[in-house]
Structure to design on (302 residues):
DNA sequence: CTAAATTCGTTCGTACACATACAATCTGCC
DNA sequence: GGCAGATTGTATGTGTACGAACGAATTTAG
């Protein structure tokens, strides 16, 4: 059974949970910092991290279905749907049904989308550098290696 | 806010942006994995990471204002508002105006909140361990050290 | 002691993130 | 050829996350 209510923080060992040392809390804060850097530096198109990721992968693939794009960018179909809708609204991508499989929606960049990506990509690299700026070169390499093992 | 962007459309070399090597993409995926582990393991109260963080800090502090709790848990006031509303709905915390400063809302755990935290805290530790399971002991220490430098 | 600045919490709007449920379509297998 | 099961995308609901704008209360500066 759980312990009794106490007036002051209980000395129970099990309750000694230090939030600021937990990996989840640190990941959340690191992500917050990265998101802030991203918004400040991505440039005049004000793409979000997910929108930029989607543009980058469509750029790589040429033509890609919405579902496959979701797998490539680590977004579930419901999330992908919203990201695609916003990129369509802004004219950065075009969408057409796949004649070979009528369930599928094929996506490609428009000229505006290609230009926006070309203009933003250097900022993307800058953002990664700035996010890792508190670490020196050796630490950066170690951190990225460990983070890759963790995903 | 919109700083000087790149002046010219960059040469093709600049477009060589490998999404899966960017720290922001890796952080997002690590967070996704952690969130999935958290939801699967936190136990019958089905607290979210932010709800659990709020309970943990109120537990530490005893009585705390909503705004200060936001600083302790790294949530902005608008986010805090929603988290608090859901914890109030579920009867885990109680809220009363501060008689000394009528802008403030003072929060404390209810008996149910204390019980839910006591029951969940061991799972919280398990979740951190499972999130870091792909790393060995030395790597875990290195990763947490580097992540702490990054937030 | 007033005027200005700051703090506290709320509301609104936008954007992920995912569970669940669903309809349309395609594939594999008999 | 036909059907069970998988895949693709949509819709809805809940929960973070934060900027902007706001009103009320308090603090500070002059």
């Amino acid at each position: 059974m759980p312990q009794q209510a106490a007036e002051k923080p209980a000395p129970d060992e099990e309750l000694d949970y230090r939030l600021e040392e937990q990996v989840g809390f640190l990941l959340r804060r690191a992500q917050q910092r990265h998101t802030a850097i991203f918004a400040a530096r991505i440039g005049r198109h004000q793409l979000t991290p997910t929108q930029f990721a989607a543009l980058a992968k469509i750029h790589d693939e040429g033509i890609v279905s919405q579902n496959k794009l979701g797998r490539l960018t680590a977004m579930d179909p419901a999330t992908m749907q919203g990201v695609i809708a916003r990129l369509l609204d802004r004219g950065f991508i075009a969408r057409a049904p796949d004649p070979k499989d009528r369930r599928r929606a094929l996506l490609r960049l428009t000229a505006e989308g290609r230009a926006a990506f070309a203009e933003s990509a250097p900022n993307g690299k800058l953002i990664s550098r700035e996010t890792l700026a508190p670490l020196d070169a050796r630490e950066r390499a170690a951190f990225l290696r460990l983070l890759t093992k963790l995903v």
Summary: The longest strand of chain B covers residues 93-97. Residues 48-51, 75-79, 82-83, 86, 101-104 of chain B lie near DNA strand D (CB under 10 Å from a C1'). The mean pLDDT of chain B is 92. The radius of gyration of chain B is 20 Å.
